[in-house]
Structures are given as structure tokens and as C-alpha cells.
Amino acid sequence: MENQIDLTVDGGRRTLSVDTRTTLLDALRETLGVTSPKKGCDHGQCGACTVLLDGRRVTSCLTFAVAQDGSEVVTADGVHDGDDLHPVQEALVEHDGFQCGYCTPGQVCSAIGMLDEAKAGWPSHVTEDLRAGIELDEEEIRERMSGNLCRCGAYTGIVAALAEVARGETGRGTDEEARA
Amino acid sequence: MNPFDYERASDARGAVAAVAARPDAQFLGGGTNLVDHMKLGVAQPGMLVDVTRLPFDSVEARPEGGVRVGGMMRNSELAADPLIREWYPVLAQALLAGASGQLRNLATTGGNLLQRTRCPYFQDLTTPCNKREPGSGCSALHGWNRDHAVLGGSSECVAVHPSDLAVALTALDAVVRLQSPGHDRGLPVHSLYKLPEDDPSHDTVLEHGELITAVDLPEASPHTRSAYRKVRDRASFAFALSSVAAVVEVADGVVQSARIALGGVATVPWRASRAEEVLRGAPATEETFRAAADAELEAAEPLRHNEFKVALTRNTIVAVLRDLAAAEEGSG
Ligand SMILES: Cc1cc2nc3c(=O)[nH]c(=O)nc-3n(C[C@H](O)[C@H](O)[C@H](O)COP(=O)(O)OP(=O)(O)OC[C@H]3O[C@@H](n4cnc5c(N)ncnc54)[C@H](O)[C@@H]3O)c2cc1C
Ligand code: SF4
Ligand code: FES
Ligand code: FES
């Protein structure tokens, strides 16, 4: 059943016609040709399809496009600032945070969402004291990024990259983490 | 996937009426379970009524005490809510131990409570499963059943209820608020779920078209402490092999009150009332905690591959109680 929907994708307004069965991921990739979000598992288990939906990181494979009519989607393709990479992208390059690159766009969006959640003071499973503030150390980063799998095992680089970005944002990470 | 109609609900009454009017209609929350099941062919609704824009998306203090949690609130926002973190740590911890950051941003309170089992045979259309297809048989009973239930199973089904949130809410004595095609009602979480017995096809006692609009948490006593502990195959992003939610008050070395629920080991979020009975009024010692765990697990009926869950759960119950009692002493 075809429906006409509006989406803002990476800053541009798009109007498209989708079958109700189309996931947001398939609408982006197949209908709009926005191929930066990847299809890994199609079942919420790998994070390769992660995009920022109205500012929050979500798995785009588990939501129907029609349910996001009117929403704003940002993919890894839309996070740069003019010619400059996003600090998360920059840090991933710097720290060898990827090999084949398939999981990377999902890692980028997830990391940006994760940093915002931490900035808002959201706790995680490894946060000792739920009432206190949080510090994005390596343990926190690993836990918060556990929804993004990497077949190449670039985790060490990813964690180092995000620790560096977190340190830049909060001034709270340690040199140890940035070098790890 | 079968074609389906989609409707975005703008008021709760309309949403209830729309689903009640069509036997093949279903509510759509974050979609993280339903969309998955539609892809697999496990669910085949002809109509989805999207309830995520209904205005039940916050935590509010109730004038009579306690708080009301919105049925459409996202799991991530609920876990981060200051009232929940301050007064109901067991709830925040249970949510944070579930799924991943990007899934919790989609998943809603109502959807989480009504997510269906992760039994692999239930999700695989090529295998018999009484829950998916009544009367076809249970593939797990004599198949691979490491992840299945040791409590509350029947000869028809031994699937585990997967929700972490539901386990915490069971220990908190929460009440689910429902808008219904007939009379609206409130149901204690522990009576929302039904044991499989001879009909595992329905996980809950809900009627078709009943909408979860909120969950009410009773007032938290400043004297109680609570915690959620989840044991799984990896440190993060996995369902529970066993989990324990406990809300306990210890004073002068004696357990004044204890509410305990178990996850990952039972066909429903399991209220451990036998353990609670042993604990009430008993000295807060390791011995008591062991006796409580034993009393609860006496009824366990392990299957071929999950005998380990009994010892694991016993140890987890004792560890959680020990931690809560120690915290009590430390604060005294
Ligand atoms: C990879 C993966 C890992 C996961 N790990 C965990 C885990 O460790 N622990 C855990 O607890 N969960 C876990 N989950 C499950 C996840 O928490 C649930 O899928 C989610 O909470 C469901 O919420 P939803 O809003 O997306 O529901 P939906 O998928 O939208 O709906 C689920 C069901 O609830 C019904 N429904 C939705 N809202 C309402 C309402 N308000 N009133 C009445 N009916 C309603 C729908 O009709 C449907 O039947 C995991 C999921 C995935 C994909
Ligand atoms: S345990 Fe329940 S859900 Fe799993 S195969 Fe048996 S009947 Fe189906
Ligand atoms: S493709 Fe969406 S989580 Fe794997
Ligand atoms: S870089 Fe290859 S999957 Fe992560």
C-alpha cells in the first residue's frame, strides 16, 4: 500500500512514495539512493544501519519509513561540516577505527548519538552511581557502543578515537585513554 | 511480508477503537519487536495503528504518591529520568541492561512489556511451535533448550519471557494502566502475564484492542533499596540467562520486607514469593539468603541443556541480597 511521505535527509527535504512495508533503511538506500547506512543483519543486532532520527541514534532497519513521515534523518553522509569531517570521523581516521569500513557509517552515527546522550547525563549499564554525573572512560564507551558490531574487530581503534573526542568535548578523558 | 494498512493515532480512544474493530490490527510502538516479527513472518497484521505520538511519554509524580510512567515513553528516556534514577534504581538498571542504545531509543514501555519470546523455534516458521501455531508441538522441549525456562513451564511450552523491564516492574508491584474497548482497567504486572499451561499462544490476559497507556509505580520508601542484576553470555547486548530484581528493606540486621522477581529462567516474569516468605523477618545473613533462594528454586524443573540455570540463579539471588544488605549497613 503506497503512501506519500516527507523526510528531511542530511539537510535536504525529500518527498517519496513508499509501500507501508518499506523500512526506513530500505527507503534511504533503495528509494532515495542514500547508501551510507548499511544493511548488516536487518534485525537490530548489528548497528550497521544506525542513523540519527530527530537527533537520536536508532536502528533504521526496525522502523517503517511510513512511521517516520515528517521526521529528520541524518546519516554518516550528512554529519560533516562543509569540507571538514565531523570530529568523530576525523578521530576514526586518526586512530585506525576501521578496516573494511562496512560498519563505519553506523559507528559514526551511533557515536555522535552516544556523545550527546552522555552530555545529557544519561547513565549506562556500567555507570556505578546512577545519581552522579558520568565520565566517558573506556568502559563507558565500550558499553554504550555495544550495539555496533565490527566484523573486522577494529574496536581498539574505535574506542581510542571516541575517548579522544570525549576528552575534547568534556576535558575529562585521560591521556592514557587517548593513546590506548 | 503481507501488505498492511498504516494509521497514525492522534488520540488513545481512536487508537483503541481502530484496533478493536479489526481482528488483524495491532498497535505499533517502537517496532523493534513487531517489525522484526513481521519480517520473519511470525506476525502478519493487516493493519498497524502507530501509538508512538500519543501523549503518554513522560514520568510524572502522582498526587497520591508514587509515579506514573507513560506507556509510550522510550526505554532510554525512562532509564535516564531523574525520578526513576533516584527512587527506582532497579528499574533504571533493568532498562540499561537491555538491548542497545539505538534500540532503547525506539523501544517503548508498552512494547517492551508485550515483546514476545526469543525462543528460536518460535521465530523459525519451519519448526513446530505451540505458541506460534497452537497444536503443532513444542520443538524446544526435546530440542535445544539451554536458554529456556526452569520455572513455570508446561508440556506445551517452556519459552522464557525476555523482558528485563517486566522483571523490575514485577518486583516493584507496578500496575499497568489499560484503555480498553470495554471498561478501562488497571492490572498488577504480575497478573498481566499468563503461564503457558495448555495454551501458550497468548502471553498475557489482555483482550484484543487493549492499549497500555501507563505503568504506575507505588511510592518508594526511603528505607528500601533496590537493584537489578543480569547474567548473560557476554558483558553487554544480550538477553538474560538469569536475572534478579530485588526491592529490600533491612533494619537492625533484620529483613523488614523483600520483593524479588526473576528473569531469564521462567515463562513469565517470576515473582519469587517463596523466597520472600523466608526472608521476611529473618536475620539478614548469608544463611537466610541461601535458604530463600533454595526455597524458590525447589520448584525448578530444569530441561536437558539448562540445569546450570538453577545454580546460577541461586548464586545471583544470594549475591544481590548480600549487596543490598551490605549497602544498608554501610549507610547505617
Ligand atoms: C537485538 C535485540 C536485542 C534485545 N535485547 C533485549 C534485552 O536484552 N532485554 C530486553 O528486555 N529486551 C531486549 N530486546 C527487545 C526490545 O526491548 C523490545 O523489542 C522492545 O522493548 C519492544 O518495544 P517496542 O516499542 O519497539 O515494541 P513493538 O515492537 O512496537 O511492539 C511489541 C508488541 O507490543 C504491542 N504494543 C506496543 N505498544 C503497545 C501499547 N502501548 N499497548 C498495547 N500493545 C502495545 C505491539 O502490538 C506488539 O505486539 C532486544 C531487541 C533486539 C532487536
Ligand atoms: S518453548 Fe514455546 S515458543 Fe519455544 S518452541 Fe516450544 S512452544 Fe514454541
Ligand atoms: S542492519 Fe539494522 S541492526 Fe543490523
Ligand atoms: S571495519 Fe569492517 S566491519 Fe567494522
Descriptive notes:
The complex is a heterodimer of chains A (180) and B (332). Chain A is of the alpha+beta class and 180 residues long. Chain A is 33% helix and 15% strand. Chain A folds into 2 domains: 2-74, Ubiquitin-like (UB roll), CATH 3.10.20; 87-167, [2Fe-2S]-binding domain (DNA polymerase, domain 1, Orthogonal Bundle). Chain A has a 5-stranded mixed beta sheet, with helices on both faces. Chain B is an alpha+beta fold and 332 residues long. Among the domains of chain B are: 5-50, 2-Layer Sandwich (Uridine Diphospho-n-acetylenolpyruvylglucosamine Reductase, domain 2), CATH 3.30.43.10; 225-327, Enolase-like, domain 1, CATH 3.30.390. Chain B contains 12 helices and 12 strands. A 5-stranded antiparallel beta sheet of chain B has the order 4-5-8-6-7. A 4-stranded antiparallel beta sheet of chain B has the order 9-10-11-12. In chain B, a hairpin with a 6-residue loop joins strand 11 (254-263) and strand 12. In chain B, helix 5 (89-96) packs antiparallel against helix 8, helix 10 packs antiparallel against helix 11 (286-297) and helix 11 (286-297) runs antiparallel to helix 12 (308-331). Chain B starts with a strand and ends with a helix. Classes of the chains: A alpha+beta (180), B alpha+beta (332). Chain A binds chain B through residues 1, 3, 19-21, 23, 42-44, 47, 50, 53, 56-59, 62-64, 66-67, 69, 110, 113-114, 117, 120-125, 127, 130-131, 142-148, and chain B through 1, 3-6, 8, 28, 30-32, 35-36, 38-39, 48, 50, 52, 76, 79-80, 85-86, 89, 92-93, 96-97, 99-103, 105-106, 235-237.
